[in-house]
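The data are quoted verbatim for reference:
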Amino acid sequence: MIDIIKEFENTPAGYPAVPSDLSTVAMALNVDMIWARIESYTAHRFTEREVVWTLRADAGDEFHPRLTPVVSSVAHYWDEQWESITLRNGPMGICLPFDGTFKITAQVGAGDVPAPVSEAFRRLAEYLADDPGTAGASGTKVAIGPIQEELTRSPNWIARAMQQSGAGDLLRNYRRA
């Protein structure tokens, strides 16, 4: 059985381009924050960055990285210091040849952003940029007689933005590597 001791993912140098059909208000949001939310929700990466996994495994175990796509990787094992090792790919993941502690340093992330992910970005951005008080509104109160309007917003509206915007449904196929 493999125990993942540590996983460290670097922040990418940049994120993919923003969809061109965003409103002016949505375009003014911090796009890196939106991409970071999408990437924390999925296992797929669309811009390259380094990930380091440190794991303990038994001989014959196969490690299946939870992030994809893995573009390249190098591996080391611990024997009073880190020693280089070449690992083979197996049918279920990276084959670990003997009992021990391993460190796999990989470059993950590549390729074009698929249409569903781009649409999820657009939906999430537009939801977050919506008229303050409207997105995530949990109640309204309107009085006609000196005109009055009151919106109450759920305190967790921003935490539920991925689901309430519909972006989460579009990202379902990208949740697992």
In short: The chain has five helices and nine strands.
